[in-house]
Design goal:
alpha/beta; six-stranded antiparallel β-sheet; 28% helix; 23% strand; 22 strands; nine-stranded mixed β-sheet; globular
């Protein structure tokens, strides 16, 4: 009796599944090489200033020109020109000018390079019981208890009275000393253990231990009572030429010490600090660097500051930096400038708000929306809306734009999935999307999923990391 052929299903069931089997050997090799480069980037880009500077150095090597210098010279720019514009060393705009007029819009990918951390207070240095500590103020949404007993590094800049810039980088090299925040031992921590996690370690207790040895007798100053602090002040003076007053003109951050690492015995993941949102920022800048030829529409990547505290300030997306930059671009690409052309350019633009999202974690399934939460190594996540409690603070992308992005990804073999941030009434969060949607442009959130978001060490899947880059490149070319 002849075997009956199996009928093909009359409907397609859309499954959320890992994408490893969809990649051939060549693309898997590209994935591994890309992730190695990414690990190196986030291991060195520990602050927004460093993330900016490394991306800028890469841009210059790729032939990008300083846009502010072109503006001063009043030179018209042609299709194919590669430009960069820096905003106070913390936000960076990169663009490749396309063949179409700018009033037709840009293809934008925007991400942020600031991350949750500890900042030193303006007068941070003090001595207590012959220990020297640094007083800190946490930046962004952190779980404070996660920051104690870790090896910590110190990064930042100090400007001396004469305006000289001193760059600090302590705790990253193998022979560097590290810093730490002490915690109470369990033998004496019964009362602490009974407190809610959010109050067990108060913000004012996040004081960083940096010294315990008093100054040598031959260098002692009899009039100064704090001998351990005096030793640190002398060290600052001898090593960097700094005075204590110089902390008033400083930006110093405390981050976890050490490099990002391959995670898992199969090396299928990455563990590292600051993946929210440098994983998307790196993908955006790499994608614009790898564009071939002149794009149809102008492609632009912006990696910005201050997202973790509301995108406020001169380097945040709430500022006019983006709008002013587009206006200057329009001015150098047309014969006669008009504000209407700038408005058209912004309104007709399309953007991926490249920010991370939370992965479904089976260890915390009670807060997850398992049918809608992204899953690790199932591809880049599209989130039609973010916000919280009734989509508050969300731009909510249109169905028409979702259709366009979905088609671009499918046509370019980008592995993707839909995403949402947990159960509806549990919490929520926002991105830079609504700041750009303000201009009338189409925007949707599109980013890499993470475990342990905002922790000192976050986890991302390598397939998702690579698909972020691939998605952003396809969007630059086809949107």
């Amino acid at each position: 009796m002849a075997k009956k052929e199996k009928k093909k299903p009359s409907v397609n069931v859309w499954k959320r599944e890992q994408g490893w089997d969809k990649l051939d050997k060549d693309e898997l090799a590209k994935l591994d090489a890309y992730c190695d480069e990414y690990i190196d980037y986030i291991s060195n880009a520990k602050t927004e200033r460093l993330a900016h500077d490394i991306a800028l150095q890469m841009a210059v090597k790729k032939g990008f020109k300083n846009f502010d210098e072109l503006v001063k010279a009043g030179k018209k720019i042609k299709p194919g020109t590669k430009i960069y514009r820096s905003c106070y060393g913390k936000t960076l705009f990169l663009a490749v000018i396309g063949n179409e007029p700018l009033e037709n819009g840009l293809n934008l990918v925007g991400s942020h390079i600031d991350c949750p951390r500890l900042d030193l207070k303006p007068s941070p240095l003090y001595e207590d019981d012959k220990l020297v500590l640094l007083d800190t103020h946490y930046y962004g949404g952190i779980k404070k208890y996660q920051w104690v007993t870790l090896p910590l590094a110190l990064h930042g800049v100090i400007f001396k009275k004469d305006g000289t810039k001193v760059q600090l980088d302590i705790g990253e090299k193998p022979d560097d000393p590290v810093l730490t925040i002490t915690d109470l031992l369990p033998h004496l921590g019964r009362d602490q253990a009974g407190k809610p996690l959010g109050t067990a370690i108060p913000g004012e207790a996040l004081n960083v231990l940096i010294a315990s040895r008093p100054i040598d007798k031959e260098n002692d100053d009899k009039e100064v009572g704090e001998k351990t602090k005096l030793r640190i002040l002398k060290l600052m003076k001898d090593t960097y030429g700094l005075e204590e007053e110089d902390f008033a003109s400083a930006e110093i951050e405390i981050t976890p010490a050490g490099p990002a690492r391959h995670l898992g015995l199969d090396k299928s993941m990455v563990l590292g600090y600051g993946q929210d949102d440098r994983v998307c920022a790196f993908g955006a800048v790499k994608a614009i660097f790898d564009l071939k030829g002149t794009p149809s529409r102008t492609a632009a990547a912006v990696i910005c500051d201050k997202e973790e505290i509301g995108s406020v300030g001169q380097t945040g997306m709430e500022s006019t930096f983006m709008e002013n930059t587009v206006a200057e671009l329009v001015n150098l690409t047309v014969d006669k400038y008009s504000d209407l052309l700038t408005r058209r350019a912004l309104e007709h633009s399309a953007m991926l708000s490249a920010d991370v999202c939370a992965l479904h974690d089976p260890g915390f399934g009670d807060v997850s929306s398992p049918h809608n939460m992204p899953k690790i190594n199932c591809g880049i996540a599209l989130m039609k809306y973010t916000g919280g409690g009734g989509k508050g603070g969300s731009s909510d992308a249109s169905a028409e734009f979702m259709s366009k992005v979905r088609t671009i990804f499918n046509d370019n073999k980008v592995i993707w999935q839909m995403g949402e941030l947990g159960k509806v009434d549990v919490g929520g969060g926002g991105t830079i999307a609504h700041f750009l949607a303000h201009y009338g442009m189409n925007v949707v959130d599109c980013g890499v999923g993470l475990f342990s978001m905002h922790a000192p060490y976050e986890t991302a899947g390598k397939l998702d990391i690579y698909m972020g880059y691939k998605a952003y490149k396809a969007f630059f070319e086809k949107a």
